[in-house]
Design a protein that fits this description.
binds zinc ion; alpha/beta; globular; Rossmann fold; single chain; 309 residues
Amino acid sequence: MAQNIQFKKISQCFLCGSKKRVLKYKINSFKIKFQYKQCLKCGMFYMDPMVSRASVPKLYEKGYYTGEADYSYFDESKNKKVVIAARLSQVKNISKFVNLNNARLLDIGCSFGGFLEAVSKLYPSCDLYGTEISDFAYHHLKKNSKTKIFKGDINQTNFPPQFFDVITMLEVIEHLPSPRKDLGTVQKLLKPGGLLVIQTPNVGSLEARIKKGRFTNFLPGHLVLFSRKTLRQLLKRAGFKVKKLYYVDIDPLSYSKYKLFQKECKEPSRNLIEHYFRFICQLFQTLIGHINFGNFSIAGGMTCYATKS
Ligand SMILES: [Zn+2]
């Protein structure tokens, strides 16, 4: 279990620089207690005090991956078939935006490499790279994969500029203490016109608004949370052009949330009816993820395809 997590006060919004913010939610449902504030100028959601940069890797020790930590989803290595199947559909989506044959692709925060494995299945000629900050995931992957994996965050790597055709950040950007800096590095590493894929929770969604402090994506590891508006703003400032933004909770996320619900249901206050009700809601949510009107969306997740402008 993650021990000795240190927090650091945030002096201003990383997106717009404003110091004006409001306390939104205090989250007390995990062993690690934390709170979110919202910038009054741009609407950005962020943890404040925030888990310190030095403490971030402590959140992703063994218990996070095996499902033992109270804020983890499920053991990916034991549900490999599900993960790969879901990731294959994601690779197909990405291939609509870029030719993956002979492309060079980097997956930031690649975990156990499920996504990279899916790419190699469909596009064996694709040159694959991954980064991972977690010791546990890194050593697991090193043992089981031939992909080129680098331990550390994107700013600690030494890839040459304009090296990649595609960079993916799948359920990763919300875990970063300074996403603006990281996207600056990503921009430098992409070839002109290269594709960036970001999949992240949507804090502006109807699901988040209804659930308020019980939004499933309020987790100790989620340091910043985007809405469609703030994600677009960040991408624009970092030198990207948004091609498409989908509000679909793709399968691995839905499945992992379902597992989290299952875990919650083991608490005595939950009953079987609620358990199945939530499962049906989860399925329904995947379907309604396709519905959106401008800035309004229902589902709690989004996937954005952007090119280096
Ligand atoms: Zn702001």
